[in-house]
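Supplementary Methods S3. Complex input for the magnesium ion-bound model.
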Amino acid sequence: MGLSNKELPKLGFLYLDYVLRFFDHSNFKGWPNKIETVTYHWGDDKDRFIAEVKRKKIDVLIGNVPATAYETFREIARELPHVRFIPSLDTQFSNKSKENVTRFAWKYNLPIPKTYIYYNRGKGDTFLKNTTYPKIVKRSYGPSNYGGYFVHKVDSYQEARELFDTKKYHPMYIQDFVPMEADIRVMLIGHKPVCAFWRRAPEGEWLTNTSQGGSMDYMNVPKSVLDLAVKVSKSANAEYWACDVAYGKDGKVRILECATAFAAFPYIRDWIGQYLMWSLSKGRFRKPHIPMFNWEELGKISPDLLRTMRHITFGEYNSSYDGAYFGKRKKMYGESEVYLHQLDSVYKMYNVKPRKFEEWPSEKWNYQDRFALKNLKSMKVPLLKKEEAPEITGDESAQLIEIGDEELEALLLSIKGLGKKKLSKILSRFNHAELINILEIEPRVLEDIKSIDEKLVKKILKAWNSYKKEFLLSSVN
Ligand SMILES: Nc1ncnc2c1ncn2[C@@H]1O[C@H](COP(=O)(O)OP(=O)(O)O)[C@@H](O)[C@H]1O
Ligand SMILES: [Mg+2]
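Predicted complex, serialized as structure tokens:
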């Protein structure tokens, strides 16, 4: 099984001058063919870059695009429709800015701190006058956004006003302050958590920044956090992903950040490389087995040593061999105790496939350039006239539609061209709740299933909408 050397897609690494390289050849150990390299030189380099990718006949371009090159690469990707970008530019939407993370979370009903975004400074100022404090103010977009350097807590209108008068942050990005225990970074490959750790603020501080004296540890990351991270990764259709989850003093979990670009030990980048080799070879290369909570053990190794460790592999659980750690070790997980190896089927490693549609086209979603501040030097900014910038605040959650399992199946089977075979394919991929979410939020995701095309999705949507109409009418009465 699997593709022969000749059938394998041609891979290329996407590099950018001055940007740290996430992958190199050593992460793709065992790939039999040459892996090309294409480097973006910034400035006026788009056309040359495109020509080089074409000349090298690259099928798959692997690598992260930094925030400041994101829009250019959306254009580049459009001009290379036959090249698969890993991660796709849609998946990397959240890399660009905090605003994008927020819009992504809003779309998929993912929990985040309540957020207010203003492109109109007059309106933003009115909001600041009338709101409650404390609030958090963040720079949404910039070349190096990390470690809380551009994150501020303000306790009054005066403080907020002063901040916006000195820092020219645009858009105005404001969040409710969430008192939290800690924040937790979860890294995932194929939607499976492969590493997770707590970051706690120093005593009496609110910023959970380890480079400023905070602490980190790998033990007992709660189920609710892992489950949220998986949901976020699935929503982004991410081959690999990192998610920062705030663990609130109220016990609730909320997303702070998520992206494909993050700092990771080399052994994690090896795992991603091996995962992609499996995925791109139709199973010729082995899918890496990465047991749940491995990080609790690897985290005991000194970071300096861990940084040098490469290509870490684990044997899989085998019932006839009872001496192994992952076979006999139990762990409290949610409400009950389970064997560690049982969790591998709860947190599956999925084969993430590319999508045919563009989810976040810049014509619609690049607010930053469409509503740029024309005069950054002075804060006397003219109000936007022609096209009003959209002000969306808070978390708008849609009304949940109720439908039983059987009823949903019957509804789908009533669609012409959708028989039992396709139905079982759909149900093996999405559970009930996920399916309803997809129908409501992004039905094009159904095209992830091989035998379902655009036309069929349209029919499914039509059936769903007429069901919904009846449901909403009956729930009003
Ligand atoms: N809404 C919030 N309420 C309380 N603390 C927050 C909030 N948002 C961020 N923080 C704190 O600030 C830190 C940095 O914020 P984050 O959004 O991750 O920005 P950065 O890009 O600088 O890492 C977080 O790790 C968290 O400790
Ligand atoms: Mg952060």
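Residues 11-94 form a domain with the Rossmann fold fold (CATH 3.40.50). The first helix runs from residue 46 to 55.
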